[in-house]
Amino acid sequence: MEYLIGIQGPDYVLVAADNVAASSIIQMKHDYDKMFKLSEKILLLCVGEAGDTVQFAEYIQKNVQLYKMRNGYELSPSAAANFTRKNLADYLRSRTPYHVNLLLAGHDESDGPGLFYMDYMASLAKAPFAAHGYGAFLTLSILDRYYRPDLSRVEAVELLRKCVEELNKRFILNLPSFSVRLIDKDGIHDMEKITLTAK
Amino acid sequence: MALSDYCLLERLKTSQTNCGDPQHIFMPPFPQATPFISRRTSRFGPPNHVLTVQRPFPLSHGTTTLGFIFQGGVIAAADTRASAGGLVACPAVHKITPIHSHLVVTSSGSGADCMLWERILIREIRLYELRHKRRLSIRASAKLLSCMLHPFKGTDVCVALTLGPRVIYVCSDGARLQGDIISVGSGSPYAYGVLDGGLSWSLSKEEAISLAREAVFRATHRDAYSGNNVDLFHIDAQVQQVKQCKYVRSQRLRD
Asked: Which end of chain B is more exposed for a tag (fewer CB within 10 A), N or C?
């Protein structure tokens, strides 16, 4: 039902998420933001079961900020991703597992940009591009076909737009708008929302 | 309830997870309760009747409640029917409860659970105000309720809607959404249909009240589990109970 996508470029990561908050068949909100800012250069995109997403994402967010307060420097994206995965794994075999699917995107001074794919089974993979949700079935092949490691920012937004148009054409559910953000060495930048009218 | 807890007169048994918590919240000793029996089944009907009506999607909570924001404040409306399976258990239930001078809660789901959580929320908000000498904000109250409900996830406790100058939807499965129009319950799709068409920011108070009443009425007309009267609240700076429409159906027939 929900859709997340991330594309990593040579010095940036582009991420997008849909804006629908649904409860069974009703769209309760059309402008819901699924991205959580963990630090100045790390974003966590979180979808899954209704309450779990916010609870888990806020827990990770507060812990990353606590690390910065305690130690004086921020967690790198890779460290934050591994911390998140460890928490997911710890809760997986407890009585209250968190059913959330995540994309963590960040930019590190030494390692450069990074996009990490995590799912509710606490798997972790660093990937050049990734997507979550039923929409991923439709768009991963587009990403496979057109992705290059040296995509410019404009080309990456174009690729994102291609994916979203395919969703609009073939996906059974209506996802009218998508929030888009870009992370580079200067931090997180909000980009223009992609809004599509029904065909 | 709050006083006896605060004075430590009778300590109820608590689980390990909230020992030492200054805001003592009673939790059951078992970590995850089994889900309640589906409310759709009735044990009192004759055995050869088909008692359960399978819904194509899981929209339970036999009620219609709604809240929306407009230029004159916030309107909350709800029906007054309490259903237990196929039985109308009570035709005059108050689903909207003022819990503070500026806050109102509409409830749907299990009636007993909603009453309990309303009382707990009233207690916690009042204790916060006494301890910190300032009012708890609406978003913080909603977050408090959401965090208190989180351990009971999966038990289908209740779905509540907190209002002030905002409308926030809090669900026992942990969801917490702030919006401009929210409707909850089995009659909510019908109410959304009327609200989405007629709502705009610049409505006057009378128009907003009549729109809310119309939306709940349409939902009670189509939904079997909603019915009887319509409760309406209008919140400006303070909570004011606007009016209670009586006998919505017969009034409609007279038009």
From this structure: C
